[in-house]
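Cross-check.
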Amino acid sequence: MALTLREDYLLSAAIDFGTTYCGVMFSLRKDFEEGNRLRIWGNQQDNKGDMNSLQEPTTVLLDPERKFLSFGVEAEDKYKNFALKSAHREHYYFRHFKMTLHRQIELTLYTELEDINGKKHRAIAIFTMAIRFLKERLLQNIKRREFSYIGEHEIRWVLTVPAMWSEKAKQYMREAAKEAGIPYNQLAIALEPEVAAVYCKELSIQRKEAQMLATFDPKSRYMVLDLGGGTGDVTLQEVQDDGTLQEFWCAEGGDWGGVGIDKEFYDLLEKLLGKDVFEKFKYEHTYEWISMQEEFEQNKKKIKSSGTDQNELIVTLPIQLLKLHNTMIESSLGDVMKTTQFKDQIELVQENKLILKDSIVSHFFEKTLKTITDHVQSIFNNTETTGVDTVVLVGGFADSDVVQHRIKKDFHTKKVIIPSEAGKAVLKGAVIFGHNPQAISARISPCTYGLHTQKPYSSVYPSDRKSIVDGKAVVRNVFDKHIEIGEIVYISKPKKRQTFYVIDNTKAEVFWNVYRSTKKDPLLCDDPSCVQIGVLRVHVDPDKSEKRRELGVCLICRGTELEAEAVDKNTGKLYHATFDFLQRSGEIYH
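Predicted model, tokenized:
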């Protein structure tokens, strides 16, 4: 799997694959090289003449035979219509499924997703369908804009992922993109907070905004806080003399996105109406349930941080939900509310409308925002971040007035910069990154990476691990370190080659198991800190000679993913090694 990008491209196209929404945009290489770096095209033109990205809910609908039907708004509308006719049960409806790749520890190509009704389908197929839809929609848009002279092989694609994602999750997205028709050598995987910073830096140069310009002066250091629908990422970067961005604090993140507010709201409804009532409503009245979700999603965006009665939220409860409650609880909602802890915070009017007062609306945001601000503060408390006085706030969730107010309030001693269209910073930055992947020059390794091997026994190893092989004392299962936790990894700069000896020269493939560790120097791969994350394979020319083959292996990061190279020290021939993070183990020949 060669990850080196083709250089003969004419257009950079980005897919921002979000938990709640997806977006696509593109720009021409000619425009970028002529200095028009913010001439980025979207899906449609609004009445102000601005180009908007395709913003579609991350929702996939399949027919009963598991064939793709629709994506986004169309998928939601179709499923609702099926639900009206009670014809939806056999269909497959997947929503907010991206976080499976973060939460699933044993992620494989056979991992399954559950739809809204618990029916299962292979996750890789769902991701592939979504990416293919977005790809085809963008290709149609390119043709509509009279760029039909550009062939598909002349497009460089960029797919965004959270910075906290594992190598396994990133490879999973690459495999899904390949199945969707995007070749390996036309795809770059981009980290969301990094490309957001790339956009903000370009925006400061093009529009000459004084505060932002100062943020991206050489030697300047800043934090990027990227808050999306499902996740939040934090990374800290320093601007280098050549204008590139170098990470100096390892990217971190968690489930800190806007969906946390949804959960708090629906948890409240469960407490008011009863969990059994709410679950029965979602199952029996799917049309009303999806409509309710859509309404809250829109209302959530309008919530302000004013702290006044103007911040009250009015929620219309479906009649079907109230009827279920009255039947199953045998009491009206109004009577129940008089006895709840929320009686002073919620008012029921016109039988089916809840007026949620500011105190409880603010509570929806509190858990998620406290998690974010506590984590950010813990980073600022570290001496390594001394002097960082700027927070660049981006992402779809960062468009929320409540979020902006809280970040500014809790970090009032810092400059909080919120670029115009903060929600599109990742997508537009990904388009720019496609033209200039070298914009990021170095990252901090989140862990120690090493390969499983065998070494001569010495006193540094426990005596009970000594084995005798061909009359020599050896230790098996040794952790051969290649990259250390906290180490600066420079992009496209190879590490020192480490020598391995191949036992069987007749084999066409050599395998190593790949491990990561939270320690700097683990001795053995079965150390409690070590986890096997995949397999490294090298395809070699079989050799029938009896001369022992030596391979010099080094790890390299040309982009956001680990790569490796191997050199046959006997012949000097260079072999491209490939990581397989979706397979747990391989046969070992070294």
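Residues 358-380 form the longest helix (23 residues). Confidence is low (pLDDT under 50) at residues 45-51, 584-590. Passed to J.P. for a second look.
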